[in-house]
Amino acid sequence: MTVRPLLLIRPDGNERDAIALDRFGLASTIDPWLEVRAADDSAPAHRMTGFLQSSGAQVILLITSPRTWQHWAQQVGVAALENAAVGAVDRGMRVFCTGPATRDSLPAKLAGVAQMAPNAAELARLVNGRELPRITGDPDNAGLPPVALIPGSTIARKELPEALERAGWHVLRSAIYQTHPVARRPDSAELLASGAFS
């Protein structure tokens, strides 16, 4: 029996999957159907960076994609973003991320302190399971809810922010990057329609 190849269509990261599939004897073809770029409006990225500049122990930063940091830095400047984030960490802000690829996309200071969950859904379960405690913080912020900063995609799923809100966090989301279909019809589309791929 002939096994048809798998079609890998993500905007990036397909090579890693192709290597893993090859180890199991599964052939694959890479043809991205999506592209990722910085959001057209950079104002949300600048606002969140400004918020970081005064953040401390009442705030957590959640990065759920390895694409986030590079697009955020592209919009506000690498040094400006890193200085704001490192300063916030020095003042007690905690950093959370999903998976080693996301952690490795962060500057060394953030990657070194980031607490990791395998994916956003599991991070949401940690929140609901009270394993991610509320931060009571300094007396100047007594009575205010802790703040969760979630920079991400314009089409990011809502499970994580909704879980945080249920747990009592004030959630600030910012659209940092956007995902779109590629401008041209992918060459693999006709082959997929004809059954050439598994």
Average predicted local confidence, pLDDT = 89
Oligomeric state: single chain
CATH 2nd-level architecture of the largest domain: 3-Layer(aba) Sandwich
The CATH class name of the largest domain reads Alpha Beta
Strand order of the biggest β-sheet = 3-8-7-4-5-6
Look up the CATH topology of the largest domain. Rossmann fold
Largest sheet: 6 strands, mixed
Inertia-based shape: elongated
Number of individual domains = 2
SSE succession: EHEEHEHHEHHEHEHEH
Number of strands: 8
* Terminus-to-terminus distance: 13 Å
Rg result: 19 Å
User: What would you call the structural class?
Assistant: alpha/beta
Proportion in β-strands: 15-25%
Helix percentage range: 25-40%
Number of helices in the DSSP assignment: 9
Low-pLDDT windows of residues: none
Architecture overview:
- The protein has helices spanning 14-23, 43-52, 68-76, 78-90, 99-104, 108-113, 120-128, 159-166, 188-193; strands at 6-8, 28-30, 34-38, 59-63, 94-98, 115-117, 147-153, 170-181.
- The strands form two sheets. The chain has a six-stranded mixed sheet with strand order 3-8-7-4-5-6.
- Helix 8 (159-166) links the parallel strand 7 (147-153) and strand 8.
- The chain is built from nine helices and eight strands.
- By secondary structure, it is of the alpha/beta class.
- The chain is elongated and about 60 Å long.
- The model has no long low-confidence stretch (mean pLDDT 89).
- It has two domains: 6-33 and 182-193, no CATH class; 38-179, Rossmann fold (3-Layer(aba) Sandwich).
Key descriptive features of the protein:
single chain; 198 residues; alpha/beta; Rossmann fold; 2 domains; six-stranded mixed sheet; two-stranded parallel ribbon; 9 helices; 39% helix; elongated
